[in-house]
Amino acid sequence: MTLTCAIIDDEPLAAQLLESYVKKTPYLTLVGSYNSAITAMRDLRDNPVQLLFLDIQMPELSGIEFARILPKDTKVIFTTAFPQYAIEGFKVSALDYLLKPIAYEDFLRAADKAAEWFSVLQKRDTYLKDRLMFVKSDYKLTRVLLDDILYIEGLKDYVRFYLKTGEKIMSLMSMKKLEEYLPQPEFMRTHRSYIVHMPEVHAIDRLRIVFGDQYIPISENYKEAVLQYFEAHTLS
User: Burial code of 172-187, b = ≥16 C-beta within 10 A, e = fewer?
Assistant: First the structure.
């Protein structure tokens, strides 16, 4: 996968360094380099890039302010000499935060994180479009239709898919990885050990999701998001 990217930095030397890093990273394609967010605004609004290396402290419009008005599909890696902005950076969903002077090793680590994020997004879109996935089970690849899933249970290093047909499929993978790939909020984590296919839920009993004689718990860590989903779908 190749990612389109741009650089915004009002320090010429810092911008040149980032340009050199992009050029020697094979999966990055530099679309533009700008000395301010104002000059970049029109280009990146009309022709958004996938990844933006964005300085924070700049005149007229700061990197934090600019990040808030970017297209939702553009992900940001902040580049700054000021560590105190880290918390603000992550509040606008930045993928990473690089502190100047930036070494190529740190740049590459952040770029790899971005590539992984877009790879997951691409797979999730494919699963949603095709409504199926293949999982490794018993030394073979087994097709699982998204519409057949009732819920998924995590068992240490394995997950078990519970299907409408009554079939159960065991696969070696982590719940965290599976949660990243499944379309949301169609599939929601309700507990550290369970992911539920929400359109298949027919009843809730005292913070437990009911599938026949099986009760799926809703834990405190996930309660707010799960209850918001049900509230949005409840006739009052």
Answer: eeebeebbeebeeebb
β-pair type (132-137, 203-204): unpaired
Beta bridge partners of 203: 210
Output the pLDDT for position 80: 86
User: DSSP assignment, residue 130?
Assistant: H
Max CA separation in the chain (angstroms): 65
Overall pTM > 0.90? no
**Which residues, 6 or more positions from 49, have their beta carbon under 8 angstroms from its beta carbon?**
4, 5, 6, 31, 32, 74
- Lookup: tokens for 94: 């930045």
Residue 184, C-beta contacts closer than 8 angstroms, at least 6 positions apart: none
Partners of residue 142 on adjacent β-strands: 135
Residues of the chain under the 50 pLDDT cut: none
Helix (H), strand (E), coil (C) string for 73-114: CCEEEEEECCHHHHHHHHHCCCCEEEECCCCHHHHHHHHHHH
Residue 1 pLDDT: 82
What Rg, from alpha-carbon coordinates, does the chain have? 22
Rounded (to 5) percent helix, strand, coil in the chain: 40, 35, 30
Give the distance from CA 104 to its chain's centroid: 24
